[in-house]
Write a structure and sequence with these properties.
The chain is built from four helices and five strands, in the order βαβαββαβα. It is of the alpha+beta class. α2 packs across α4.
Length: about 110
């Protein structure tokens, strides 16, 4: 991973707000950048076994999305940047499955990306 955006991290610009609003219990939604950009993001999403590949977030099931190859695929680099979407961006909404299963699925997909 190249970067991680999660309000629960002390390095996050949203951490202070998370502490204030939710007593530091950030949501189950995070995003990260995957080395290899568009192609690696597509391979990562295709390699997921348990985590569903959907563009919505906040479900009880774990969901993942690679906007550059799905919801924002029609945009050029400038339009992607204006939308705050990079080609390496993966969005992950963590559900209620066993955490070890979630970690295993993400890990094996990262290995294949």
């Amino acid at each position: 991973m190249l970067w991680v955006n999660y309000a629960g991290l002390k390095s996050s610009p949203y951490n202070e707000m998370s502490q204030k609003i939710t007593n530091g219990k950030a949501s189950g939604i995070l995003s990260f950048g995957i080395a290899g950009g568009l192609e690696a993001g597509t391979r990562f999403i295709d390699a997921l076994n348990m985590i569903l590949r959907l563009v919505n977030i906040g479900d009880a099931k774990s969901l993942a999305c690679h906007p550059a190859s799905t919801t924002h695929r029609q945009l050029n680099d400038e339009e992607l940047a204006n939308a705050g979407v990079s080609r390496d961006l993966i969005r992950l909404s963590v559900g209620i499955e066993n955490i070890d299963d979630i970690i295993a699925d993400v890990s094996q997909a990262l290995d294949k990306a």
